[in-house]
Amino acid sequence: MSINSFGHLFRVTTWGESHGPALGATVDGCPPNVAVDEAMLQHWLDMRKPGQNKYTTQRQEADQVRILSGVFNGKTTGTPVQLMIENTDQRSKDYGDIAEKFRPGHADITYWQKYGIRDYRGGGRSSARETASRVAAGGLARAALNALAPQVQITGYMVQMGPHKIDREQFDWDEIIRNPFWTPDATAAKTWAGYLDQLRKSGSSVGAMVEVVARGLPAGLGAPVYGKLDTELAAAMMSINAVKGVEIGEGMNAAVLTGEANADEIRMGADGPIFSSNHAGGILGGISTGQDVVVRFSVKPTSSILTPRKTITKSGEEVEIITKGRHDPCVGIRAVPVGEAMMACVLLDHLLLHRGQIGDAGGKIG
Amino acid sequence: MSINSFGHLFRVTTWGESHGPALGATVDGCPPNVAVDEAMLQHWLDMRKPGQNKYTTQRQEADQVRILSGVFNGKTTGTPVQLMIENTDQRSKDYGDIAEKFRPGHADITYWQKYGIRDYRGGGRSSARETASRVAAGGLARAALNALAPQVQITGYMVQMGPHKIDREQFDWDEIIRNPFWTPDATAAKTWAGYLDQLRKSGSSVGAMVEVVARGLPAGLGAPVYGKLDTELAAAMMSINAVKGVEIGEGMNAAVLTGEANADEIRMGADGPIFSSNHAGGILGGISTGQDVVVRFSVKPTSSILTPRKTITKSGEEVEIITKGRHDPCVGIRAVPVGEAMMACVLLDHLLLHRGQIGDAGGKIG
Amino acid sequence: MSINSFGHLFRVTTWGESHGPALGATVDGCPPNVAVDEAMLQHWLDMRKPGQNKYTTQRQEADQVRILSGVFNGKTTGTPVQLMIENTDQRSKDYGDIAEKFRPGHADITYWQKYGIRDYRGGGRSSARETASRVAAGGLARAALNALAPQVQITGYMVQMGPHKIDREQFDWDEIIRNPFWTPDATAAKTWAGYLDQLRKSGSSVGAMVEVVARGLPAGLGAPVYGKLDTELAAAMMSINAVKGVEIGEGMNAAVLTGEANADEIRMGADGPIFSSNHAGGILGGISTGQDVVVRFSVKPTSSILTPRKTITKSGEEVEIITKGRHDPCVGIRAVPVGEAMMACVLLDHLLLHRGQIGDAGGKIG
Amino acid sequence: MSINSFGHLFRVTTWGESHGPALGATVDGCPPNVAVDEAMLQHWLDMRKPGQNKYTTQRQEADQVRILSGVFNGKTTGTPVQLMIENTDQRSKDYGDIAEKFRPGHADITYWQKYGIRDYRGGGRSSARETASRVAAGGLARAALNALAPQVQITGYMVQMGPHKIDREQFDWDEIIRNPFWTPDATAAKTWAGYLDQLRKSGSSVGAMVEVVARGLPAGLGAPVYGKLDTELAAAMMSINAVKGVEIGEGMNAAVLTGEANADEIRMGADGPIFSSNHAGGILGGISTGQDVVVRFSVKPTSSILTPRKTITKSGEEVEIITKGRHDPCVGIRAVPVGEAMMACVLLDHLLLHRGQIGDAGGKIG
Question: Which of B33, C58, D171, D213 is surrounded by the most beta carbons within 10 Å?
Fold first, then answer.
């Protein structure tokens, strides 16, 4: 019931604030004998790390992860894995102004109204720094997936920045790691570079859309009602800071389709069922079909902008605020590895849940 | 960890299949001394009941709910409330054909692959009949909300059917209960009537978009990370049959906005903070702001259509299938009361969670 | 988090009151394809059924269990199983007196203080009738255990009634089902019969001690800290009405032993490790050793006795009360099948948990 | 579902091994605005700290706790509190011998059989060092209890060491902190000192019995079935290393009593109901009565003794083992603050649960 946790059998609890001494993830239920070390986790954290190029915040964080428990001689022991990341760049002076004023679009006002106290430094618990913990946990989930289901591949990428969508015709899996936006469309990457440069200089920000795909997932993962794979993925993605919408397969567009247009017809392939299309996004009745699982989510623009905005103080005074500091003009970029991490955690969790309830007694076809 | 449950303190477990003797909801954690009886719950079930007009399935179900426990002399006792709905119209003969064939777009194939056994009658557990249990539980949640926070009003309505959106300028709260589509736009209701009639006659189906709004919710509900109000609502709505996308406030559209366009500025009103706009959909950092909470979800078209579709059998044979039977041409209509029920369950749960952790120690403004 | 639930993957939620229309258990997470029907569950319910001999309450309850969901063609489908038992003998007139008075030793006063409302008929939710639901769920757990680990045998029996203990030298497994006290000591059965007869006639009652043993359980079930097998068994048994103490292996007696006396030395047998003794009760570090798992619990005497006792009313008036009605002089007897049911639920749950996290990757010896 | 967690709303997850870099507790759901700092937690850790006198292990651990998150300016913020204790005295050389051999009475063999890998240094996860994390979390629970229910007092003490029981006539609350055994009987303390000295010199060990009492707890905490206060306390205490039995009130002795002897009669006092006795241990039907809550548990003798014991190796070879190292001759002593910590966690959790479900709507008497 822990409100800062997610997952059932592979259960992640994140902790820590933006400007406290450290943050991290407590991971319970990881299978034993999974090969993992700090370097493997660091690989994923480095993808999300700020300050790598001019398109992300200039905050300098090493984001160095330490494994404090649950791993012995390079392998998981099946006991809780504690992953800790120390905060090193805590320029608290940047945040003095916001102790009393609520930044519009931020959680300042709601944390105050809920708790009657808040760590106002850099957003405290509500800071997107929390997602570093998820990426660390996701790295562990990937290592476990690699041991249990090595054919599963999880890839995230940006499909839209502000008004600029990618051209699906230009989709190139290999392009994704070549540009700073994790986008599969090289032309879009160029357009976005110019667009974002301008936004950054004007102190503005913009939203984005991210897609995460899992290829090679076996059929049968998920469960009815609240264990539905799409339910879990929707929760996982919506729990990421700044996310305002989540779609599976056709997503919101399903509203406009007819039954004929939406049907994924089934034929028999060499290795089992194959589908004529994937409107369903790889999930039927909450359970994976064996097709690609396709999730998309929108990320709102950073609320920290240089244009003065109207707000109030704790004492109810009406004031204006400019959010200085070092912020991402498009936080959607760094949301890509976070979305991948959440996908990895959900899939591993359901792989374990399925093995627990069903073992290898699932139904065969043909 | 129960996969057929949702909620933390107000915890609902649904059970039952489309063509079994009964289905229902086991509700644990309801506050005591809440006035409730079967008639109050029946009111909401009747909204969802099939066979009420030509736009919904002609299956005849009384959907009569019985309270088997947890209520004494018209009040909840604080112990588990068992809500049971007996299945009365179980024309199993309609479903004989699908024992071996998998209907495209249905969960037939995934349930088989997962469990190695399935109750194929009418979709069994994956049938949308399951949502009747949720509506019953939601009725109980509403009764409890009415006792604890009577100012909260939950209203769902359709905002799109296929390509036809409502005109937000025509929005009229009072119109919603006057037309069979639960839409606030009287003109749209007329357009949809003609459109759906045609679809129904051709044996086709279409998707829809539903919006659910909670007005009067106090600020401070929700919590970080996995207790975020938007996380919970996304999961709640995505867990409804046929839902493929969920949005909060601006939703997917947040991707196209700049920080300036997306900011909800804050001023001080007579009774506390007021906002210049509600792009956030009433939630910041996962916690309610006191504005309207606005959730939208898409419902895919029913996969049961009269046009023959290609599929396979359990033994892998390639065949065609026509899904006869009595189906909704637009299941989005009957998803409206279901969405309301899920909203009620989530809000009550978070009201209790907040009271548990915080009591009345939240922060005041002004 | 459901307070009326237990188990992780095999999750049981019981519902219902002593004098409501019905009570039962909602069981989520049962493996699919387990052969089960109502007759198989009835077998266990009949063991617990009241009114079978003069040593148990004369309340006449058929305790007929119905399966409302989750079973199709005689096999579980992997979806929630609803087990319902209708209350048939509800002589509410017996209980009129206790609407205002609190019976000492009963939960009347605490339910009132907690909830501000209570179903006073026969104890309502706090009645030992609730345990019928557990026995039904335990029957399902046994069926699943039988499919997954057929070598596991669960047997409960009484080892003490009031001051009269069994003689362990006379222990005979086959005797257990031959006497009305489920005791393995035929001589004790005779002594107890006379002793209890006298108590019953005088309107008194007495406590008892029950032992439940699981034979044939594989090594490796359980987990650290709160997933410890002994933790779970302690909770399971202590949750049974009237239980006041729980022991594993040496139990409370472990306090008097030295390290030398308590050690279970290990040798290598033909099929794996063998132990020189079983002080540990089959559990080390919370994980099963492969030896017999031995749990013992005490059951307090029924508080419903004919001797007048001092108490108060809701309005604070000091009065006396005699609890008439039809009560068990030694509820410990009927606690035997309940203890077995709880053991079955816990073991199945941990079998699934183990399979989920570990699969077949446990360590081999030799 | 996390197997290394306990609690519902106040939820503690412990992590870490005996000889890893650190161990600790992740605590979610703590109420905000609770005054707490490291010194307050250290107070309780120092009670449990090893090496303080000749009756406990000579391992030298500072057991210095650090608060890494969830506390700001000396108050909790309502977000997760991370408590970390670094391991400083890790003489791994002491443990080289046990990498291959299984120590009888320890979890070496079961961890191996379960996980197929184990951190053999000092017992790894199964080491009693894990209880330091609980004491830290318990300190936080006490701080929160102090804010919410300052009248609650939690006190643990030893009532038996080996064959030597305390004399209840000599019970003196003030004596408890004056002797190294946390016993309320000064005479017993003297007897035990001599007894234990002898045991220690001979390299042997002995069991103990600990009692924990909560005074001043309001009536109404707890809930039916699996939220029963006694169920939760039984689980909490049984989850402590080396505990083999748990009792509430009369405990195992309830088996010998008649209904007349066991009844706690009720009268009306100035401030509410008063009871003639407390056989129930302060709990009826799983809910607190307002009387002292009394829990007792047995602690088995340390299995690490100098007498050679028979055992086997991973490869199945039969060998002998002497467990050298620095061990407690009576671990029951240091279990006292651990038992208190668990009591504090359970009571706070149920205080929050009660507030969440019921608020202040409980029933009044008189």
Answer: D213
| Inter-chain CB proximity A355 and C359 less than 8 Å | yes
- A207 pLDDT exceeds 70? yes
Exposure string for D35-58, b = 16+ CB within 10 A, e = fewer? ebebebbbebbebbbbeeeebbbe
Q: How far apart are the first and last CA of chain B?
A: 42
Cα separation, B20 vs B40, whole angstroms: 25
Residue A209: strand, helix, or coil: strand
- CB count within 10 Å of CB B199 equals 21
For B303, counting Cβ atoms within 10 Å of its Cβ (0-12 exposed, 13-18 middle, 19+ buried), the class is buried
Give the pLDDT mean for A195-214.
Answer: 94
Query: Considering only residues 292 to 331 of chain B, which have any Cβ-Cβ distance to chain A shorter than 8 Å?
Result: 296, 298-305, 307, 309-312, 314-318
Min Cα distance A8 → chain C (Å) is 9
- Smallest CA–CA distance, residue D352 to chain B, in Å, is 5
Cβ–Cβ gap B107/A284 under 8 Å: yes
State how beta strands D287-288 and D283-284 pair.
antiparallel
pLDDT digit string, tens, across residues A155-172: 999 999 999 999 999 999
Shortest Cα distance, chain A CAs vs residue C35, angstroms: 14
Question: What is the pTM assigned to this prediction?
Answer: 0.97
| Cβ <8 Å between A33 and C361 | yes
Confidence of residue C90 (pLDDT cuts 50, 70, 90): low
Nearest CB to B259: which of A2, A118, A303? A303
**CA-closest candidate to residue A250, choices A283, A289, A299:** A283
- CA-closest candidate to residue B130, choices B17, B293, B257, B31: B17
C-alpha span between B140 and B121 (Å, rounded): 29
| pLDDT attached to residue D85 | 97
Q: Judge whether D255 is closer than 8 Å to chain C, CB to CB.
A: yes
DSSP string of D54-118, one letter each residue: TTS--------EEEEESEETTEE-SSPEEEEEE-----GGGGGGGGTBPPTTSSHHHHHHHHS--
Which phi and psi angles does B206 have, rounded to 5°? Answer: -150, 155
Strands A283-284 and A287-288: antiparallel
Query: Can you tell me the distance from the alpha carbon of D340 to that of C120, in angstroms, rounded to the nearest whole number?
Result: 35
Q: What percent helix, strand, coil does chain A show, rounded to 5?
A: 35, 25, 45
R_g of chain A computed on alpha carbons: 21
For residues D293-320, give the mean pLDDT. Answer: 93
Output the pLDDT for position D94.
Answer: 59
Instruction: Considering only the beta carbons, identify the residue of D1, D5, D23 that sits closest to A9.
Output: D1
* Rounded Cα gap, residues D243 and B287, in angstroms: 42
Structure tokens at A37: 């070390």
- Greater confidence (D92 vs D300) lies with D300
| Cα of A44 to nearest chain C Cα, Å | 24
| CB-based contact, A78 to chain D, within 8 Å | yes
Contacts of D102 in chain C (CB under 8 A): 266
Cα D132 from Cα D65, distance rounded (Å): 9
CB-based contacts of D222, cutoff 8 Å, min separation 6: C110, C114, D228, D229, D230, D232, D283, D285, D286, D287, D288, D350
Q: What are phi and psi of A280, to 5 degrees?
A: -75, -15
- Let me know if D319 is exposed, middle or buried by CB neighbors in 10 A (0-12, 13-18, 19+): middle
Using CA atoms, how far apart are residues A263 and B304, in angstroms rounded to an integer?
9
The helix/strand/coil state of C2 is coil
* Residue showing tokens 């009826």: D284
| Yes or no, beta carbons of B234 and A246 under 8 Å apart | yes
| pLDDT tens-digit readout, D97-143 | 788 999 999 999 999 999 999 999 988 999 999 999 999 999 999 99
pLDDT band at C193 (very low <50, low <70, confident <90, very high): very high
